[in-house]
Specification:
This is Bifunctional diguanylate cyclase/phosphodiesterase. The protein contains ten helices and twelve strands. It has about 280 residues and is of the alpha/beta class. Bound molecules: ligand C2E and magnesium ion (3 copies).
């Protein structure tokens, strides 16, 4: 049987023995161009909270409402897009949309509000990435000082030289760089001596276990200590309980992010209710 990728007249042949999850992947991969053309993607924003409890910055997180599948999360479709060689189209859409919406965030919060944009490992292999970023900034009059890029350790190390030269250029432009999901990637720390970054984002895994695991607490202490010694800022992701927050605050973690403060929300919601509403946790 066949499935028509919406509005594009592209047919994919599904063989009956193909698993449901494989069919879903193909459908997702084949729907990406249409999703961009038909505005099915949107950006949600999740605040990062500083030690004073104020909103320090926001992270843009992509959302997709697929016409047949309903909501599809980035944890699923980013990987599929990467495997299908279609991530750069998504990245360009994100860069443009985030650049466009930044003006509104500035008017809601402050002209100094900072916006974090995630980059994929595959993006870093494109020598044109800097130009896409630069062009998106130009098109929407973005001050690069308002923008941070989040990239995972593995993305950085996948091609160290290329990543390093890109991040130096972005730095010179005024952007900052955060190393996302820190602690889950490579075991070697030697690259930290050479890399152009501003912030370490402690992975949710460690934060999740703060209340229950002495070892996670010790690793977290060590990561924060390491960051401080390297003059890097530190952000903890996935904070869900008050006790996790208190612990991170006591360690001097610069910013925290998580459902305790706010889930990622669409711009319209943020406009109606700019402040975060801390959950009971
Ligand atoms: P990430 O950049 O590490 O983003 C953090 C993820 O954790 C987000 O999931 C966020 O919604 C979720 N999160 C935040 N606070 C909490 C919490 O307290 N508890 C729990 N359980 N989860 C929390 P999301 O939005 O589903 O994104 C997943 C991943 O997909 C991101 O991980 C990032 O790697 C990727 N991604 C998202 N948006 C983009 C994008 O625009 N471009 C690229 N290349 N990747 C993106
Ligand atoms: Mg991120
Ligand atoms: Mg992260
Ligand atoms: Mg993560």
């Amino acid at each position: 049987y066949r499935s028509k990728a919406r509005g594009r007249g592209v047919y994919t042949i599904f063989s009956p023995e193909m698993s449901e999850s494989h069919k879903r992947k193909i459908l997702i991969a084949n729907s990406i161009e249409a999703a961009i053309e038909e505005n099915q993607f949107s950006l949600y924003y999740q605040p990062k909270i500083n030690l004073n409890g104020e909103i320090d910055s926001l992270e843009a997180l992509i959302r997709w409402h697929h016409p047949e599948l309903g909501p599809v999360m980035p944890s699923e479709f980013i990987l599929v897009a990467e495997q299908a060689g279609k991530i750069t189209a998504i990245t360009q859409w994100v860069l443009n949309q985030a650049s466009k919406e930044l003006a509104e965030l500035m008017s809601i919060y402050s002209p100094k509000i900072r916006l974090a944009i995630n980059l994929s490992v595959h993006d870093l292999r494109h020598s044109e990435l800097f130009d896409w970023i630069y062009n998106a900034f130009q098109a929407h009059s973005v001050n690069p000082e308002n923008v941070e890029f989040e990239v995972t350790e593995s993305a950085y190390l996948d091609n160290f030289e290329t990543s390093e030269s890109l991040f130096k250029r972005l730095h010179n432009l005024g952007c900052t760089i955060a190393l996302d999901d820190f602690g889950t990637g490579y075991s070697s720390l030697s690259y930290l001596t050479q890399i152009t970054i501003d912030t370490l984002k402690i992975d949710r895994q460690f934060v999740m276990e703060l209340d229950t695991s002495e070892r996670s607490r010790l690793v977290t202490i060590s990561i924060i200590d390491l960051a401080r010694r390297l003059s890097l800022k530190i952000c903890a992701e996935g904070v869900e309980t008050i006790s996790q927050w208190e612990y991170l605050k006591a360690l001097g973690c610069d910013t925290v992010q998580g459902y305790l403060f706010s889930k990622p929300r669409p711009l319209a919601d943020i406009k109606n209710q700019p402040d975060y509403q801390r959950q009971a946790g």
